[in-house]
Amino acid sequence: MVHIHPQTKSAAVNPLKSSQPLGAALAFLGVDGAIPLFHGSQGCTSFALVLCVRHFKETVPLQTTAMDELATVMGGEGHLEEAILNLKKRANPKLIGICTTALAETRSEDFERQIANIKMMRAEELAGTEIVLANTPDFDGALEEGWAKAVTAMIQQITRRGQQARHSRKATIIERITKPGEHPDKRKKVAILPGWHLTVADIEHLREMVESFGLKPVILPDVSGSLDGTVPDRWMPTTYGGTSVEDIHELGTAVQCIGVGEHMRRPAELLQKLTGVPYAVFQSLTGLKNVDRFVSFLSEISGVVAPPKIHRCRAQLQDALLDGHFHFAGKKIAIAAEPDQLYQLATFFIGLGAEIISAVTTTGASKILEKVPAESIQIGDLGDFEDLASDADLVVTHSHGRQVAERLGIPLLRVGFPVFDRLGSQHKLTVLYQGTRDLIFEAANVFQAHQRMPSPEILDGLRKRRNAG
Description:
The chain is of the alpha/beta class.
């Protein structure tokens, strides 16, 4: 059984985790026509914005209520209302995602009541814009939990309830019947709730696989449509691409919900409670067995056998496993990541014959930590990680771990958020058959590039011993 050691230091040394508001903002950025709004000081937003821009290399529409000293003491409702009205007037977003910060949360304000009052008093001015609140104080949790809270909030506050969803499904069918010459889309709709650790390429690849079974995926949030590196033909004050607000309204018409990552269990459970849509959570989509289970599940709900292309991708992964396992056997791996990504990567390396000698994560709240194949897990920072990873053959974490790798003289495999010192991190596949194959090649190539070749002195010494014998 894995032993989980809590954080005991009073200060973080080279922090590993990113904050809850940043995780929530990333989720809101996966909605078309959205603007995340940090309810706090300008400084809180600036740090998050810098990380997002450096990671994605894109323009990120992240805004702030810019609370000052007076608002911090007396209350920030006026700043919140002013910010919402300004965003509506200047950008006319389809959704404003409010992410509370520690500065606002420590005062224990009733944000739900404040937003309800703003919506009621400014109903005419705010028509056509959804306002969603996610309570995400910086002093609690981490990026993973902020992402999950934002997705939960969107389902809670936008998705139509059970009776409404069923009525909407019926109305859609009637509308299609009454339009002559229109061919109704008979594909079953599947709601996909991806975890934060899926890249733009992962989500796009996941969509393609689901569609190959004749299913219609609705992905929330869908950063593959909004942060995929495309350049619009004009300046856009909001996100462009991603999940539409209308699709979020209609999530209850799906025949199945699929969550990817344990932190997506809560929003999946909420969707089932509100609309009756059954759900399944896949804790990882990396590794042959995990992907096999996912493919079998898609085949079961669609009634369609896996197409030849998927069989070919599986065969390629099998060949990659044969080619790559020589490079992994006995290797010592140190991983520092959010809980679900820690589980994803640890099971991947263990499956190839490596050993996890150090595992550091951001928060102890996730139940997935109990399943991580490691002797112990430290809740901590990259300072703890450096102390525990000295004997590793490979360190696996984000770009803030590069100093750790340099000081220890150990190669670094960059994963997660943020990755700001390499290009193309969002277009790197890590899931399903192709993603697992690519991850095998990437890690094996790092091992090969850093092989410790015997020096001439060592070889000469061996020859002398053989000649003496």
